[in-house]
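# step 3/5: fold
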Amino acid sequence: MVKFFGGPVTGATLGLSYMESVLLTVAGMMTSVIIFSIVGRAFSKRVSTMRRAKRKPIFSKKNRRVVQIWKRFGVTGVAFLTPILLTPIFGTVVAALFGASRKHIFIHMLWSAIFWSALLNFMVFEFGNIASSLF
């Protein structure tokens, strides 16, 4: 749920089939998306309050990059980058914070989860034994 890359590796390690691993990876991400799209704005307000209490800067390199992605590509771009660069939690909170509707968040995160899950699972299942033989 927290890190998307763990799903394909865990699926291969447990001896799951490709399709089982894909479906469980998608289910893990979508569980995070459902939970954090509901509590996303409240979660971001809490984090913001904690940052202010610790006197941490509001804008960091990462925050500026996320804002640029949002301005250029909207919820589609955030959803596309969520599994590989952002975590499902952070990507969902960002989309909720910028005002995307839950419906749009669910739809875009779902296609992104399916795409990246299929691709990463394919890479792990096809090329994982090559990588393991190198180490």
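# step 4/5: annotate
The helical segments are 6-13, 18-53, 61-81, 88-97, 102-134.
# step 5/5: archive (pending)
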